[in-house]
Amino acid sequence: MIYPSDFEQRIGFDKVREQVGRLLQTKAAAELLDAVVFSCDFEFVKLQIGQVGEMVSVLRVENDFPLGGFKDINYFLKRVRIEGAFLETNHLVELNAALEMLAELVRFFENRKERVPYPLLADLAAPIGNYDAARREIERIIDKFGRVKDSASPVLQTIRRSIIEKNSQVGKRLQQILKQAQNDGIADEDSSITIRDGRALIPVMAGSKRKIRGFVHSESATGKTAFVEPVEVVELNNEIKELESDEKREIVKILIKFTDFIRPQIDELMVAGEIIADLDLILAKARYAVEIEARVPILDSKPYIYLHQARHPLLEKALKKEGKAIVPLDIALSETKHILLISGPNAGGKSVCLKTVGLLQYMVQCGFLPSTLDNSEFGIFDSIFIDIGDQQSLDNDLSTYSSHLINMKTVLREATSKSLVLIDEFGSGTEPTMGGAIAESILQKLEERGTFGVITTHYANLKYYAATAKGIENGAMTFDIQHIKPMFRLEMGRAGSSFAFEIARKIGMPEEIISMATEKIGVEQVSIEKQLRNAMRDKRYWEQKREQIRVANKNIEKSAAEYEMELSEIQKERNRLIKEAKEQAKYIVAQANRKVEQTIREIREAQAEKAKTKQVREELQGFINELDSENCEDPIERKIRLLRERAQRQQNRQAKQQQPIIEKPQKPKEIEAGFKVRLEGQGVIGEVMSVSGTKAAVAFGQLITSVELSRLQIVSHQEFKQQQRKSYSSLQSPTYDTGKQRLNFSQQLDVRGMRTADVLAAVENFIDEAVMLGFSEVSILHGKGTGALKQEIRNYLGSQPVVKSTRDEHEEFGGAGITVVKLDL
């Protein structure tokens, strides 16, 4: 269920539909776009999103996918079902273009039979048959200009040859008559034969028109010239007219014959026509996704939302035209925290957050890619409700507040735990105390029901309720108190302030008025928002602590399970080795018995000579000593002991790492090669390889980079060793997963709106992480603007040894607004 009926207009989806419509090539696809509706069928939504996602990959990677030739064919193919009906020549031209595109599409997927990177699109195109015979027949009948060829039939060729001969005769005779008329002075010297209504005529002076035997067809606008058809060519022109009629009849026969030829394939051809329309719509969605920098999200059948760097596509376009950058949003609605209550100053972006969530969720469930990063997650809701804007109605005698209450009545009646409710300025429109009480009651009911929602408000009682409610989380739109301006950034986990007094001071309201207002509401009321912020800060702190403890316990349990598994494997290995040892012991005993028997035999043969007996006994004792030397520690016991010692060392390391490092780094007067240093404000420690002027070459792991000496802090050898142990421990930890890090890493960094100093630091960290994760190519989105920011970034990248080259992105993907960086790995 979608409520109200004008939901798409309120949320802005009608404009998204309009912008996608401009990218369509066929009317059939436009009809499909108009028919797109909100779907709560998870498999259907997953299919739609997957198809568009594959098409985006095609646009970015492939160069042999047919992007043209999308034609409406089903509207004229319908007449093929009627016996005796035929297709026009323009229909054959469109059909041929469509069949050629389908053939290219089939070849595209056939070339990828062994490796199918686009399975959903391949399944969509699977019903396409072989229409080569129809294409050959069309190409035999018409030329590239859509004209029926002379060779389409022997009869047509004969008729057209006769028409050419008759026209030639008419032309020659008219030239003779015209020349004679010019000689007689009844036609101008520069006059020529004129074609009117399909007939060749001679222009003569109006006063002399009767001097030529023939029919006067018309006169010029001035009345000075008459156009005469000489009687000598009338018969020839009549014959030409008859031949042209014969030509039309023959063309109709040819078209009827072709129509009869393709009639057995009509059902298959109409399926192909539907595939063309589907592909046209998917391609338009993909092109729009590239335009708004949308990504394929993670989908789930359960209702929840996790938006990472979400952007309102319509607002972002509008801001780009003004040379401004949008502030992305991170929003989460889970089963435990399913309602987000956003508060903050007016014009601070609360409504934009609400509309962004509503529009992107609606786009996903309509089969459009959302403008978020690709690690965003969307669940499936069975209904969406919105209450936004002034809905006052004069016709129904409804006030703004009454219309809000009617909407809330609908929400309370229809909303479930699988519904998404979007309410702007909750509780406003009436007396604050009563309106706030009603709003709090509604909010409590929605929380108890498990309904998901994004709600904006200024009411303090709602913020207080959300601070203690289990299923509701406060969110605040940040505000720059120093400059008294909104920052349009959402912070989850704390309530926002309206900053009414601060804004009043900013716009120049007399301090006397502000003081009087403070006295009227009382000092306690003025400071209540501050107390609320402190409470939310404490709540957030303990929630983070609980989460850290939970993660730590989970890691301990995982480690214990892995140790148990490893010990079990070791025990199995021990049993196996013991069995082998017993077999080896039997062999050794047998070998020892043979040695003893041999010794006794040699002593007997030597008749107990003392020297020989001593020698034999020494050899036997040497053999016994050799066996004793192999009686070392049990390898299994040793491995268990080492494993336990390693676990103990790891626990000791974790305990030491949790203790703060008391030793403060000192900045020496001079930094030399071999010093251990870290960047100011950074935790990674590196080693100085060389110093040149004001810069030093520092090795951070495998990466060597040039850094200003003023940015370096020297660290002790002990701290460097501790950092190395910590890095090794983190790499050995079972929770480190390079594959997961690569999946979560975005190959594009957006630095629009950031200060230059922050930009270079962000670029430095971005390049370091890309190198560690093995990405050879990344991109930096900085926008076009004046080009100063782009130049700063390029200058910095040019100084880095690991950067192989930089270039502008292709024009269709951002052009000069994006720098593509190739890394030398």
TrEMBL record:
Q: Which domain of life is it from?
A: Bacteria
- Chain intervals for the UniProt region annotation (Disordered): 647-667
Question: What is this protein called in UniProt?
Answer: Endonuclease MutS2
A molecular function (GO) term: mismatched DNA binding
The record ties this protein, via SMART domains, to: MUTSac (SM00534), MUTSd (SM00533), SMR (SM00463)
Q: Which family does it belong to?
A: Belongs to the DNA mismatch repair MutS family. MutS2 subfamily.
Per the record, the GO terms for biological process are: mismatch repair; negative regulation of DNA recombination; rescue of stalled ribosome
Record-linked InterPro entries: DNA_mismatch_repair_MutS_C (IPR000432), DNA_mismatch_repair_MutS_core (IPR007696), DNA_mismatch_repair_MutS_sf (IPR036187), MutS (IPR045076), MutS2 (IPR005747), P-loop_NTPase (IPR027417), Smr_dom (IPR002625), Smr_dom_sf (IPR036063)
- Judged by the first EC level, this protein's enzyme class is hydrolase
Coiled-coil features, chain-numbered ranges = 546-616
Q: Where does ATP bind?
A: G344, P345, N346, A347, G348, G349, K350, S351
* Domain (Smr): residue spans on this chain: 749-824
**Which species does the entry assign this protein to?**
Mucinivorans hirudinis
- Where composition is biased (Low complexity), the residues are 649-663
Which PANTHER family does the record match to this protein? OS10G0509000 PROTEIN, OS10G0509000 PROTEIN-RELATED
* Subunit structure and binding partners: Homodimer. Binds to stalled ribosomes, contacting rRNA.
